[in-house]
Amino acid sequence: MDRLNFLTAGIPISAKPRTFLNGLTRVREMGLDGMELEFGHGIRQNPALMREIGKRAAELGLILTAHAPYYINLNSNDPKIIEKSYQAILETARSLDVARGWSVVFHPGYYLEDRPKFAFPRVQKHIERLLQLAHKEALKVWLRPELMGKKSQFGTLYELVELSSNLGGHILPCIDLSHWHARTGKNNSYDEVERILKLLDHEIGGDVLKNMHIHFSGIEFGPAGEKRHMIFRKSDTRYREILKVLFDYDIAGVLVCESPNVEGDLLMLKLIYDSFA
Ligand SMILES: [Zn+2]
Q1: The pLDDT value given to residue 122
Q2: By C-alpha distance, which of 130, 128, 187 is closest to 157?
Q3: pTM above 0.85, yes or no
Q4: SS3 for 42?
Q5: Residue 216 maps to which CATH number?
Q6: Are 32 and 257 in contact (CB under 8 A)?
Q7: Per-residue b/e over 237-250, b at no fewer than 16 CB within 10 Å?
Q8: Contact 97, 135 (CB under 8 A)
Q9: Residue 199: its pLDDT value, please?
Q10: Is the bond preceding 17 in cis, omega lying within 30 degrees of 0?
């Protein structure tokens, strides 16, 4: 990617009726760059629809990403849950591949009763296997474990960086800046986000900073981490300076806005970002 693109998380609120195709038209009308297809509550294969979505997105010059179902847990010791998790990730990847999309994000799982250091090799083994399966099917989309906001969830910045580094950069993390802020109570300033970017560049390297999949929103949190996403203005998120560091480092890829006021907040972010140029 050659610049930072601004994507809505799902269909814009103002698309009527709220279908994927109307959503894309609406995204284009607002001058935004694309849409993350939300399959959080489940995915059914529909190649005909995905082809149509892909065709419409291409006509409108829009980028597509996708969010896999929420029920995934790659740290489960129940083979049925593992199988369901594999299917959820692969089905999302197949769907996005048909639509000629770019990047699939998934929640890797929960520590459950495990200590994090015991969950790590298990999750890594499954992600490695998923990569091989996606490769076998020649799926041309990134698979991205997401940086998670609750302390019970696998997926700290450090776990994901280590995963990417161990797997030779063949998977890259989805950096959810709001989740990391909620999880740590910090990481909400220019300098702190700059340190994240430097860590990614140093530990993963390659063109990681030109290949970023970022999630961003206001967020409410407590001692256990994330409680809920909220609009930027009601939150303590220092979005202006965070956008500035993304601009200064010439970050390229996608920034997906997951605020409840999805397109309103995304337009605000894009306006601020463009004002730096
Ligand atoms: Zn997510």
Answers
A1: 96
A2: 187
A3: yes
A4: coil
A5: 3.20.20.150
A6: no
A7: bbbebbbbbbbebe
A8: no
A9: 98
A10: yes
Q: From ligand 1's centre to the CA of 245, what distance in Å? A: 23
Cα-to-centroid distance, 107 and ligand 1 (Å): 6
- How many structural domains comprise the chain? 1
Does the pLDDT at position 259 exceed 90?
yes
Q: How far is the CA of 149 from the centre of ligand 1 (A)?
A: 9
Report the separation in Å between the CA atom of 142 and the middle of ligand 1, taken as the mean of its atom positions: 15
Which residue type, as a one-letter code, is found at position 248?
Answer: D
Q: How far is the CA of 9 from the centre of ligand 1 (A)?
A: 10
Q: What is the pLDDT of residues 53-106, one digit of tens each?
A: 999 999 999 999 999 999 999 999 999 999 999 999 999 999 999 999 999 999
Ligand 1 center–CA 175 separation, angstroms: 10
- The rounded Å distance from CA 126 to ligand 1 centre is 19
Q: What spacing in Å lies between the alpha carbon of 147 and ligand 1's midpoint?
A: 8
The model's pLDDT over 121-132, given as tens digits with 9 standing for 90+, comes to 999 999 999 999
The span from the CA of 96 to the CA of 76, in Å, is 26
Domain housing 113: 4-275
Give distance in angstroms: CA of 115 to centre of ligand 1: 22
